[in-house]
């Protein structure tokens, strides 16, 4: 079985353990994903039918790559494996089985924008203040409820939830949830969370369906298990209940979606759920140099909540981790771009070898600008999806309406676009009539004469007749011809064509690109169903990365750390290591949030194979104002022996300009911050972390970092978090002096004085 030779004995053990429950919880880069890939190949080799295998991955792209690798070992049989994200796999099942719980097989998938638009309509109807009940907030509450399998009825009956909502002054949330869910159902639509929530319902209420899929999926595997939520956990548990051939892999230290309901408890539950469980440990990191692995270990050791792991690398030590300080975000971008440029020319690397990772999407701007200036090709991953663009959504709304005329969001979107004389008053009238008669909007507009006055009735009639004609033609035309027909006859193509502005041209080209994509789809030979409605089914689940026309293009990769999960690059730049940015301002309120932020940093650092560069800026534009920034506490936590500083740049402090800006920032923060954020201290002031890290060390009353320029070996110090200790060594030159300190509580640590929050006692 030479195909398993690419695994070490532990990995191989896990891949060969094909029966019964298996769990692999191991550090980054230790080959977890590789084990799943080889394990699937092994299953097929030993005679398991590919149709009986289900693999759940975190992105569609990961599934695609895995399938390609498996194909290399087992050939075209790999095509038959069920593989994809939770959302895409269960959407597929719901298309087949959803009628059993009242959904049409061509149900629409509402994306976040659609969902929020439904919510806005509901809030308006209920006359609720949309500041208190902001669509964002409400959406997150409903999402959390669904992911914990709380239906709107249960939500309304749950005393705890009710009293919490009332205490928050948001006692109507239960009703909003009900109206929202009812509205989506009436539209024949599921939001993202429904894809899991309704799957759970389906499996619970229809045991025949459950039984069918339990028998179909004889072997289940889940990658990135640490980021599954309760709803996903339960689906997996149910499907695996008969055969118990389930293998989950993950890393608790990389759990970064708790804010979306992912629950670390799922890992702990797994052991309880399957007492016969076989646990495999993988300790060797094959991805990164020793220095990178050591840095990652030193970061994560600051978290209290973690399963102890021993991760090591046998690769070279590699370069030390470079820390760059820049004067501004623009300068930070410039430094990164120049480093890439230079390294590529001296070491003959490809653009592909570099990735720039950031905490928030907004940070991409300064990076992009700098890369463009040097003509460096780059690609942003996980950004706004092609399918989220207005013109694309417009055309797709016509498609949606054609296949599911009850889709109210689609209807509202295009009923008067392009303009056809159906004003807001008419639309309100339609909504009102539908409500009064307890029918759908579509039912109103197919009989406009019955519900509307003369003039508006006639323009509405023209619209509904047009959609009905689309329903007829799409039955016989190929996907591409149908799409083109709709683009032309809806007037959309003409409207965009006539707009001669640069943006108009751009939009027109995007529509052409969509049509080209549909053309390719209608000519594909590897799928049986190639009609437009099949093309439409998963569109809402596609991300920018899935639409990548040229995935192997040689470009620098830019993405948020969240999107970088599971990936690896020879040289990684992690930018924006500043207080209130990373860790983010929102995370400063609790230890749990701060630990999640630290895991995020761990994820970022462990993407790097050979080289890692970290940077921060001492000032940055935020909300249009220049603010002063303080280096992130995470820098302070890295063992300084692995770092190399590059501070030839500008002086860090003592610039009176900063002090003015600091004041400006304080004012600005008051104006712009959300209530929660406002409780975090403004940048530039020492951040009080006492409450967060109280368990680690409670600093003396009034603790403030003092001037450590006169620090000498033998002196006693107090560190804000590490507590009391004694200086045992000092090395390096000002301002980059490293101090080795022996702390009473935690032992020896090497700190960079300039970052360390120390007080001489
Ligand atoms: P993450 O936690 O970041 O998702 P992971 O545990 O899934 O990481 P993989 O991505 O599977 O790790 O592996 C990391 C890298 O190490 C990959 O390039 C992989 O091909 C390589 N690798 C893993 N195991 C071996 C091995 N036994 N021999 C050679 N290379 C290996
Ligand atoms: Mg992985």
Automatic annotation (TrEMBL):
* InterPro entries recorded: DExx_box_DNA_helicase_dom_sf, DNA_helicase_UvrD-like_C, DNA_helicase_UvrD/REP, P-loop_NTPase, UvrD-like_ATP-bd
Q: What is its EC number?
A: 5.6.2.4
Q: Which GO terms describe its biological process?
A: recombinational repair
Q: Which reaction does it catalyse?
A: ATP + H2O = ADP + phosphate + H(+); Couples ATP hydrolysis with the unwinding of duplex DNA by translocating in the 3'-5' direction
Which of UniProt's keywords are assigned here?
Answer: ATP-binding, DNA-binding, Helicase, Hydrolase, Isomerase, Nucleotide-binding
Q: Name one Pfam family in it.
A: UvrD_C
Source domain of life is: Bacteria
Gene3D superfamilies linked to this entry: 1.10.10.160, P-loop containing nucleotide triphosphate hydrolases (3.40.50.300), PCRA, domain 4 (1.10.486.10)
Gene Ontology CC, one term: cytosol
Query: Which GO MF terms are attached to this record?
Result: 3'-5' DNA helicase activity; ATP binding; DNA binding; hydrolase activity
In this chain the UvrD-like helicase C-terminal domain maps to 290-566
Q: Where is the UvrD-like helicase ATP-binding domain?
A: 5-289
* Residues holding ATP: 26-33
Query: Which PANTHER family does the entry link to?
Result: ATP-DEPENDENT DNA HELICASE SRS2 (PTHR11070:SF2), UVRD / RECB / PCRA DNA HELICASE FAMILY MEMBER (PTHR11070)
Q: Which family does it belong to?
A: Belongs to the helicase family. UvrD subfamily.
This chain belongs to which protein, by name? Answer: DNA 3'-5' helicase
